[in-house]
Amino acid sequence: MKTYAPPSARRRRRLGAVAAAAALALTPVAAANAATIISLDHDVSGSTYIKSTNSTVRLGPGTLHTDLDIDTGDFTGSLTLPGTRTRFAALGLVPLEANIDFIPAGPVTGHINLAGENAEVSATAKFYVKLSNIKAIGLLPLWWFGGSTCRTVNPVSIPANTPPGEGFDLINGGRLTGTYTIGQFQNCGLLTPFVNLLVPGAGNTVTLQATNGRVS
């Protein structure tokens, strides 16, 4: 007779070597229903395409940290990405460049489905998008720009999901993609109306590659 394995048991088997290594560091819990958490770090790099400015911004290398409940597949964590510099054409006419930073505005939250043939991640990260040192290419910074305080009024919610037909490996990582909307900016000095005319909008895409998973 075939023995039925409950979902939690199937998930534990999918963790394999990760669970075995992490078990050495886990503190025994007194409550029978206490969660079993594994902390993982992945290296992350990729890019995001900003539709309104028709520009591609390089992301990373950064770090994705997650605290994974291996019984439920739920996790929380953080995604740290270094700032970068990008170029774009203002309304298709004036070539500009600016520093762009993604400032974390809360934890990364999500779920990894370990029960299927391919593990799948669905997650959401929230960032303030910050602009600084805007200048026309080859010229001095625009003196009427608001300095280092120019950022989105509200956090930008960015999904990071396993693409259909692909899988995510807790050690080898995998690809994560999503589409998001950038809202209005504030504190950009006299450039605030110009930035809000140029940058906000829907249809922006992100692609991240997580690699080198390790128990932390």
TrEMBL record:
InterPro entries: TAT_signal (IPR006311). It comes from the Bacteria. Residues 1-34 form the signal peptide. Keywords: Signal. This is Uncharacterized protein.
